Amino acid sequence: MAKHKTPLLDELEKGPWPSFVSDIKREAESRAKNEKGVEYQIPVDVCDDLLGVLELSFTDGETHWKHGGIVGVFGYGGGVIGRYCDQPEMFPGVAHFHTVRVNQPSGLYYSTEFLNKLCDLWEFRGSGMTNMHGSTGDIVWLGTTTPQLEEIFYELTHNLDTDLGGSGSNLRTPACCLGMSRCEYSCIDAQDLCNDLTHEFQDFLHRPAFPYKFKFKMDGCPNGCVASIARSDLSFIGLWKDNIRINQEAVKAYIGGEIPPNGGAHAGRDWGKFDIQKEIINLCPTKCMWMEGDTLKINDKECNHCMHCINAMPRALRIGEDTGCAMLLGAKAPILDGAQMGTLVVPFIKCESPYTEIKDLIEKLFEFWMEEGKNRERVGETMKRIGLYKILQVLEVEVDARVVQEPRTNPYIFWKEEEVTGGWDRKIEDYRSRHKM
Amino acid sequence: MAFISSGYDPKQPMKDRITDIGPKDYKEFLPPVIKKNYGKWLYHEILEPGVLMHKAESGDEVYTVRVGSPRLMGVQTIREICEIADKHCGGHVRWTTRNNVEFMVDSKDKVAPLKEDLLSRKHTAGSYKFPIGGTGAGMTNIIHTQGWVHCHTAATDASGTVKAVMDDLFDEFTHMRLPAQLRVSMACCVNMCGAVHCSDIGFVGYHRKPPIIDHKILDQICEVPLAVAACPTAAIRPTKVDLPDGTKVNSVAIKNERCMFCGNCYTMCPALPLSDGQGGDGLIIMVGGKVSNRISNPKFSKVVVDFVPNEPPRWPTLVKKVRQIVDAYSKGAHKYERLGEWAERIGWERFFEVCDLEFTWHLIDDFRDPAYETWRQTTNFKF
Ligand code: HEM
Ligand code: HEM
Ligand code: HEM
Ligand code: SF4
Ligand code: SF4
Ligand code: SF4
Ligand code: SF4
C-alpha cells in the first residue's frame, strides 16, 4: 500500500515514455519489501515521502525544498549539496535529503560489477534514487542524511576506488564525449584528456579556490556532443589541420545510392535520391569542394572543418591525421549578464599525453583568475570585463586573426605609449612654436 | 535500523583517510571490442532508429542499441540494466550525455534478441522501461534539471514536463524522419543548469513575481549586503522596517519594477522566496540554438513563447506549443537544416506565422547591450 495518495503523479505513469513516477514507486516498494534484508541507514519510507512531497508540489505549484545548508565531508568544499524539506512533519523521510555527486568515469562506460556495487552502497546509505547523470556529468545521488556523508565517502574511497565530484566555487567535474572509444570523428583522445585533467587538478576540484565555478569539457570534434562550447568555462574541441582523407570509391557509391547518406540518419523519410551537388557541395559553408568528373575535390586550405561533408558521407571522408584541439574560454548560461558562447583563445594545440603545454596554459589561467576575478564572476565575465586581448596576454598566446569573428567596428584603440613614435611626452612650447594661440 | 559504521571514526577523521583519488580509470570499463579498436574506427551506420553499427579498421564491428531513460532512476532499475548487460553484453554498458543508455554487442546476430528483451520490459503501469531510438534525424532524450523533485529555486517541475513532452513526441524518438537532429532541453529556472540556451528547443521554468520579503527573519538568517550585491539589476537596497509588534529591524526594500525575477537574491538569502503557484510561475519556450559547428556557427536559443502556465500533471499548453513548433519545422525545413537555420532562412517574422505563435512585446530584447544586436537594422524583411 502506498503511504501517500498521489493522484496527480499517477497521471504521469501513463504514456509510452519511461515514467519516473513508476521508477520512484518501484524503489519505494522494493524498500518496503526488503527482500534482501538490507539494514537501511536512512528511513525505509524515504521514497514514499519523496512521492508525497512531489505530489504536494504538483498540487500547489511550488517547490518544497529549502535552501541547502552547509554540509559536506571533512576537508572537501564540494561534492555534497545540502537539501532539506520545508514540510518535515508531513514527510519525515525526506526531512534531510542531501545530494551526493560521485565523479563519473570518463565517457560513461561501466562494468556491471562496479555499477552493482554503487547500487549496493546507495541503497544501504541513501534513498536509492539517482540521476544518471547530472548535467555536469556526475553520478548524482539524491537523498541522504548528514551522518551518512562521511560513511559514504569512506566506502567510496576505500571500497570503490572512487571520489566525489565538484560543486561550489570549485573546479567542477570535467566531462567529455565518448571520443576515440567509439567515434571515428574524434581528433583527440577526449576520454584520456578528461581523465588526466581530472586527476591533475584534484585539489581545485575539492577545495574552493576560485571566484566561482569552473568547468572543463572536451568534445572530440566540432560536432560538439557534450556541448562544451556552450557549457564549459574552458572547452576543448578536437580539430585536424591537414587534409580530409577521401575514399573516391566510396564517394561513387554514395552518388550511386549504394550507401545511405549521413550514416542512414535520414532513413525515416523519403528525401529523394542523394544529390552530392545539392547536399554536400552547395552546403559546404566555405564552398571549397567540387567535382571533377566523378572525383570529389576539396581545397583543404579553405575548409573550416565544419564536419558537414564528413557527417554526411562517413564512409568516403575521414578527418585528417595532423590532429589537436582548439581551446575556447568563457561559455556560460544566461545568468547574470546574458548567455555566452566559448571564445576561441587557442586556435590549435597538440593534444597528447602528458598534455604539458595544455596544463601550463590552464595554470596561467587559474592563477590570473584567482587574482583578478570578482566574487561570483565566471571567467567569461572576467574576460568580458577586461577584454580578450588581456586574456591572450595572460596565456601568452600569439595574437591571431582567428580569435575574432571580425575586426573591431570602432577606432577606439588603447594604444600603448611605447607603440607610438616619440612617446606621449610632448612639450607645449614645441607645439606652440608651430601653432600660435 | 542500527547505525552501521563503514570503518570511519568521527573522533579521528584523518585516520586511514583516502582523498583526492579522482574517478576510476575509464579503461577498466571498456567492452573488449571497444578497447581493442580504440581510436581505430573507420565509419558508422545507423541501421535503424536506435541501432548503430561502428566498423573498425580491423574489420571488427560493434552494434549499439540506444534506449531512453527518465534520468531520475532508482537502483532497482540500474540493477535491471546490469542484468540485461550481463545477459547480452558481457557485463558492460554506457550512458550517453543526453541520459540515454547504450547496450553494445560485438556481432549482428546478438542485436535482435537484445532488442526484443529491451522492448518486452515495461513498468506495471504500462510505460516502456527501455524504449529504443534517439539516433539520427530525429529527437533524442531531453536533457533536464531537477525541478520540484530536488531543487529550491525551481519554478516548475523538470521530470514532469519532460515526461509529458516526451510522451507526445515519442514517435520522433523512435523514428528518423525530421530534417536533422532535434535537441530538446529543459531547465526549471533561469539558472539553466542544462544547456537550454543552445538547444533546438528549450523550455525553462520562470518566475514572474518579485521576492516576498520576510522582514521578521531576514536580518537573522541573511547578510543584508550579500543580498543587495546579489541583484544584477540593483533592485535591492538596505532599509529599516517597523514590525507590527513595534520592533525596528534591518531588512531590504525591493524596487519591483526593476526586478527581472532571476532568483539570485533568494539563492543568497532564504528570506526572499519568489515561488508562486497562484499564477506567477510557469515556463518560457526558446528555440533555434545549436552547439555543433556543422554548416553554420553555434547559436543561442531565442525566446519565442513568453509564458506558458504551470499545468501539472501534464502541462497541456506546453506540450501543444512544442508540438506546433516541431510540426512546422518538420514540414518546412530542408534536409540537414537545424531548427535555428530554418528559422533564419525563412525569417523570424515568418517563423511566428508558420508556427502559429504570437509575437508580443515581451519578445523584444531590452536586457543590456546585446539587445541592440537583436533589433532589425535593415529593410530586408518580409510581409
Ligand atoms: C545563482 C546561480 C545558481 C544556483 C543558486 C544554482 C544552484 C544549484 C543547485 C542547488 C543545484 C543542485 C540541484 C540538486 O541537485 O538538488 C544545482 C545543480 C546544477 N547546476 Fe546550478 N545553480 C546556479 C547556476 C547554475 C548555472 C548558471 C549553471 C550552468 C551553466 C548551473 C549548472 C548546474 C548543473 C549542471 C547542476 C547539476 C544539475 C543536475 O544534476 O541536473 N548552475 N545548481
Ligand atoms: C550536425 C551535427 C551533429 C552530428 C553529425 C552528430 C553526430 C553524432 C553521432 C554520429 C553520434 C553518435 C556517436 C556515437 O555514439 O558513436 C552523436 C552522439 C551524440 N550527439 Fe551528436 N552530432 C551532431 C550534433 C550534436 C549536437 C548539436 C549535440 C548537442 C546539443 C549533440 C549531442 C550528442 C550527444 C549527447 C550524443 C550522445 C548520444 C546521445 O545521447 O544521443 N550532437 N552525434
Ligand atoms: C572611423 C571613424 C569615423 C569616420 C571615418 C567618420 C567620418 C565622417 C564623415 C565623412 C562625416 C561627414 C562629414 C561631412 O558631412 O562633411 C561625418 C560626420 C559626422 N560624424 Fe563621423 N566619422 C567617424 C567617427 C565618428 C564618431 C566616433 C562620431 C561620434 C561619436 C562621429 C560623429 C559624427 C557626427 C556627429 C557627424 C555629423 C553628422 C551629420 O552631419 O549629421 N563620427 N563623419
Ligand atoms: S563530439 Fe565529435 S568526436 Fe565526440 S562523439 Fe561527438 S561526433 Fe564523435
Ligand atoms: S568540413 Fe565543412 S567546410 Fe570542410 S569541406 Fe566539409 S563541408 Fe566544407
Ligand atoms: S535549473 Fe534552477 S531550479 Fe533547476 S536544478 Fe538548476 S538551479 Fe535548480
Ligand atoms: S529576483 Fe533577481 S532581479 Fe529580482 S530582486 Fe532578486 S536578484 Fe534582483
In words, what does this structure look like?
The complex is a heterodimer of chains A (437) and B (383). Chain A has 437 residues and is of the alpha+beta class. Chain A has 15 helices and 16 strands. In chain A, helix 4 runs antiparallel to helix 5. Chain A is globular, with a radius of gyration of 28 Å. With 383 residues, chain B is of the alpha+beta class. Chain B has helices at residues 32-36, 75-88, 111-120, 158-168, 170-174, 215-221, 224-230, 264-268, 316-332, 339-346, 348-355, 370-374; strands at residues 41-48, 51-56, 61-67, 72-74, 92-95, 101-105, 184-187, 201-206, 236-242, 248-254, 282-287, 302-309. In chain B, the strands form three sheets. In chain B, strands 1-2-3-6-5 form a five-stranded antiparallel beta sheet, covered by helices on one side. Chain B starts with 31 loop residues before the first helix and ends in a 9-residue tail after the last helix. At the A-B interface, helix 1, helix 2, helix 3, strand 1 and strand 5 of A face strand 1, strand 4, helix 2, strand 5 and helix 4 of B. Strand 6 of chain A pairs antiparallel with strand 4 (72-74) of chain B, so a sheet runs across the interface. Bound molecules: protoporphyrin IX containing FE (HEM) (3 copies) and iron/sulfur cluster (4 copies). One iron/sulfur cluster (SF4) is lined by residues 284-286, 288-289, 298, 303-310 of chain A. One iron/sulfur cluster is lined by residues 284-286, 288-289, 298, 303-310 of chain A.
H/E series of chain B: HEEEEHEEHHHEEHHEEHEEHHHH
Annotation, overall tally of beta strands of chain A: 16
Mean pLDDT of chain A: 96
Helix count from the secondary structure assignment of chain B: 12
Give average pLDDT of chain B, whole number.
Answer: 96
Oligomer: heterodimer
Main-sheet strand order of chain A equals 8-9-10-15-16
